Amino acid sequence: MIPKVIFCTTVSLAILAVILLALLSPISHRKQSKNPTRPPWLALSLYIQQPHVASSNTQPMAARTDAEAFIFHRMLTEGPENTSRVVGKAQGFIVPIEEFAHSAFNIIYLSFDTSEYSGSLSVEAKHVAHKDTELTVMGGTGSFAFARGVAVFAETDSQPSYHVKLQLRFPNRSQIIP
Q1: How much of the chain is helix, strand and coil, in % rounded to 5?
Q2: Residue 112 CB neighbours (<10 A)
Q3: What pLDDT is recorded for position 129?
Q4: H or E stretch at 166
Q5: Is residue 19 part of a domain?
């Protein structure tokens, strides 16, 4: 008889513990906007500029058709002017040949160093076009940890700068910000 009482008591306590955990768990009652510094969706609009150098012997960012590999190191600014505030760097390695279209080497790194954002993004360039190019954001570090999304690179009228529109999504966040 005593083993039956112990068994029923143990099962009752286990069921009570599961119910209490479900009702009192902070995760189930957490507000969606608990962390206002990192929204679930983040839209950024930036520009890739030539570095500020005195001589004009730097190559433009557009890839030549006879190029075997295209390596670049450019400044990332807030505005389209070359004198806009620098917010980071854009570095990349692209092989603009059809055979390497799905290569792991075609990566663009956007690194940020501002008071709002500190970290980097990895953008995978599966297809490189001369006009608007939509690329995939594969992840990031710092403020952009685990980010996924889309990066649209578009040539601007004022060469040699490119307009970069980023639409980033962070994991485990269900609230959408327009």
Answers
A1: 15, 35, 50
A2: 21
A3: 57
A4: strand 162-169
A5: no
Extract the tokens encoding 122: 């990895």
> For the purposes of burial, counting CB atoms within 10 Å of the CB of 3, is it exposed (0-12), middle (13-18) or buried (19 or more)?
exposed
What is the residue whose two structure tokens read 């854009």?
90
> What would the two tokens of residue 70 be?
């295209």
Rg of the chain over Cα atoms, rounded to whole angstroms, equals 25
Query: Nearest to residue 143, comparing CAs of 166, 175, 164, 177?
Result: 166
Query: What are the angstrom distances between the C-alpha of 152 and each of 33, 80, 145?
Result: 27, 15, 20
Confidence grade of residue 130 (pLDDT, cut at 50, 70, 90) = low
**pLDDT tens column, 131-141:** 667 888 988 88
Say if 103 falls within a structural domain.
yes
pTM score of the predicted model: 0.63
* Structural domain span for residue 103: 40-50+67-177
Residue 44 lies in a domain: yes
